[in-house]
Design a protein that fits this description.
Low-confidence stretches: 1-29
Strand content: over 45%
Mean pLDDT: 89
Distance between the termini: 61 Å
Helix content: under 10%
Length: 717
């Protein structure tokens, strides 16, 4: 019998408070988290919904390439692998970020405190060094607003400190031409200095034609630790060349996962990425006796370049019979970005009160160009998939300035009140340097201001049981990309407003001898939600679609049945609906007599979201067989591909099997073995969707059955 959603939420909440260790951490009760709080604390004591994926879970989940390998076990988070290295992962938290057609939108991303999200709110995770991570923390819910603009959630990676001298060599091989080599070196040195360096080279043929990729990632982490000071230096360099097989129509998708859109090979669609970044953090501790406890200063600077060839027909870009085509930005995207930021913070402490306060400034500047993707006349081009005539030349800039404060007041050992506020300003500007014919001056600027308060309460009912509740107001500005176009190609989208949200959350955490459970119920009401108006011809236009409501439940379970057997599970239920009706475009040009606005009814599901998703894992150390054997199940409900809900990507469940074993030798040597078979039953499913695509190419297929083997040798001395 089908249970209504609201009754399902109550059942999950009740079950969660009766018993269990969250699946994402094998020792969750002792895991220390940094994200979201005034000071470092154990995850159990954090009065908000936070998940931790530790280093071992990351290493067991795959070749340490994509966050989607391991973060599927965090409730409330949807991480979809597009299986397309020309696009970043599709990540959403409680429905925030689901509309992103590329990159990560609506969440804040960090690696060792250095933002991977730009000031305009869009970010990438391809340069995350998962092999060198100690853990990944995922903060959901109201306390994420303390991270500023576009923080519907926070994903933060923390590098592993250097414990001993170690060299590592890892080799991965698998289906569809997966080849990866990784080298690493960790060196503790005299006088408190330490160094960790790594380099990775990945090559992949892909299971679809036109889906090969190559990636090189280098990272260096240096640190100095004194009696009261810690200085950490981070450097990284990431290059990636990837073909783009494009999305599929439903008819193409139904033929099987190995399909590729014909336009992909016709135009040789592809993307090249270059990103370099450096950052430094200085932390000074004054001790725990005076009021001034700690100061911190973080500075970072980086550059990112992208060149992408799209499959846009020449006549769409330059059609003498359609004068408005003169305003098209072309079929080749080329931009160079420079960005930097500075954050200063201080922590004050009294007997029962801790306070942190800080200020942040971030900047980005994009030199963005567009070119035709053909040569010769548009009616009879001589060559496709090349860089042709200039069609766009502009400078886009974004700047944020924020100040924040957060306080934690311990009323007594059982009760704690946490409150904070962040106030900031986002300045976005476009300077158009390509003014020609009907292509007028598209320059423009907008300024958004926000003040986000949050308050929370923690109640330690028993030593093993904690309840928490929180409320907050959030803000999300449009990105530069979302402001770049209107549906009728009239230039800068001056009418687009930022969206505001009111969030409520209640949660429960239980830590037993063998059973751990985290659970949360949440409600989010949003005004002026930003949605897709049209997505055609390489241009996405956005609009405010009115009010939306998200509510749901999240639960994570860890059960240690005996010393050799453990069970973990995560469940997410999400109701994400529009509360107002609005109009949207399904084809280009729009709006026009041929393609008028299509009504979207109030009550429709927000595109890109699912009503249910889950993860389960059963791991066993049998003794008669060396190592650990585990079976994983990932399931997801159907996904709306556009706002009119005309089509859905079908729901699915895939089963993965893994075996891992560590062999130690004399003289500090160790060999770590990992074998995986993903999608054991060879299910055909949509790994992700391209929201609102006007060509109907919504579907990006998930990988067929794929085996891989990893050999990871390390030497300690």
């Amino acid at each position: 019998m089908h249970m209504p959603l609201h009754r399902s939420l109550i059942a999950v909440a009740f079950a969660a408070t009766t018993g269990s260790s969250p699946v994402w951490s094998q020792d969750a009760a002792q895991t220390v988290v940094v994200t979201g709080g005034v000071r470092d604390r154990q995850a159990f004591d954090a009065p908000y919904a936070i998940g931790v994926v530790d280093a071992q879970a990351l290493r067991d989940a795959g070749p340490l390439v994509n966050l989607s390998e391991a973060l599927g076990r965090v409730p409330g988070l949807n991480v979809s692998n597009r299986n397309n290295y020309a696009q970043d992962l599709q990540i959403s938290s409680r429905g925030f970020g689901a509309r992103a057609t590329f990159g990560v939108r609506g969440l804040r991303l960090y690696t060792d405190g250095i933002p991977a999200s730009m000031p305009d709110g869009q970010g990438q995770v391809a340069h995350f060094d998962l092999a060198g991570a100690a853990r990944v923390e995922v903060l959901r819910g109201p306390f994420s607003v303390l991270y500023g603009n576009s923080s519907g959630g926070v994903i933060a990676l923390f590098g592993a400190p250097v414990g001993d001298r170690r060299a590592e060599l890892a080799v991965d091989g698998g289906e569809f031409g997966l080849r990866q080599v990784r080298v690493g070196l960790a060196l503790p040195m005299e006088d408190g200095f330490e160094l960790r360096a790594s380099g990775t080279r990945l090559e992949l043929d892909g299971f679809r034609p036109q889906s090969a990729a190559e990636r090189t990632l280098g990272s260096l982490r240096g640190a100095w630790r004194g009696a009261n000071d810690t200085v950490t230096l981070l450097l990284s360099d990431h290059t990636q060349d990837a073909q783009d097989p494009l999305g599929l129509t439903r008819a193409q998708f139904d033929l099987g996962p190995e399909q590729t859109a014909p336009q992909a090979t016709q135009f040789n669609t592809r993307k090249t990425i270059r990103q370099s970044q450096g950052g430094v953090n200085w932390r000074h501790r004054f001790g725990e006796t005076g009021v001034l406890r700690e100061t911190s200063l973080t500075a970072y600077k980086g550059s990112r370049g992208v060149n992408q060839v799209l499959a846009i027909p020449p006549l769409t870009q330059n059609n003498p019979a359609v004068p408005s085509s003169q305003r098209h930005g072309g079929g080749v995207v080329d931009f160079d970005r420079a960005y930097d930021g500075l954050e200063a913070r201080v922590r004050l402490g009294w007997t029962d009160l801790d306070v942190i306060a800080g200020a942040v400034q971030e900047r980005q500047a994009d030199d963005r160009r567009g070119f035709e993707n053909f040569t010769g006349p548009s009616s009879a081009p001589t060559e496709l998939g090349v860089t042709g005539a200039l069609r766009r030349d502009e400078r886009n800039t974004a700047r944020t300035r924020d100040a924040y404060a957060q306080a934690e007041w311990t009323l007594d050992p059982a009760w704690t009140v946490i409150a904070g506020v962040r106030s900031g300003r986002v300045d976005l500007r476009v300077e158009d340097h390509y003014v020609q014919g009907l292509n007028g001056d598209d320059s423009g600027s907008l300024r958004f201001s926000y003040t986000n308060p949050v308050v929370g309460l923690r109640w330690a009912v028993q030593p093993q049981w904690m309840l928490h509740a929180s409320a907050a107001r959030g803000f999300e500005s449009p990105t530069l990309g979302e402001l770049a176009y209107t549906a009728d190609n009239s230039g800068f989208n001056f009418g687009l407003k930022g969206q505001t949200s009111n969030q409520l959350e209640v949660g429960s955490k239980w830590r037993g001898n063998a059973l751990d459970v985290d659970a949360a119920l949440f409600l989010v009401d949003t005004d002026d939600e930003i949605g897709v108006l049209s997505n055609a011809g390489g241009r996405s236009a956005f609009q405010n679609v009115g009010r939306t409501r998200r509510y749901g439940a999240e639960a994570a379970l860890g059960w240690r049945l005996d010393p050799t057997l453990r069970l973990g599970a995560a469940l997410t239920l999400l109701h994400a609906r529009y509360r107002d009706s609005f109009g949207t475009c399904l084809a280009a040009p729009c709006p026009s007599a041929a393609n008028p606005l299509v009504p979207v009814a109030a009550g429709n599901r927000i595109a890109g979201t699912q009503e249910a998703s889950g993860f389960a894992e059963l791991a066993w150390r049998p003794g008669v067989v060396p190592g650990e054997v585990a079976i994983e199940v990932r399931a997801q409900g159907k996904t709306a591909v556009n706002d009119v809900n005309a089509e859905y990507a079908p729901g699915f469940a895939v089963v993965n099997l893994r075996w891992s074993h560590r062999i130690t030798f004399g003289q500090g040597s160790a060999l770590e073995l990992l074998a995986r078979v993903d999608n054991l039953a060879d299910r055909h499913y949509a790994g992700s969707v391209i929201v609102g695509d006007a060509n109907g190419r919504f579907y990006e297929p998930g990988s067929p059955r794929a085996a891989m083997v990893s050999l990871r040798w390390s030497q300690h001395w």
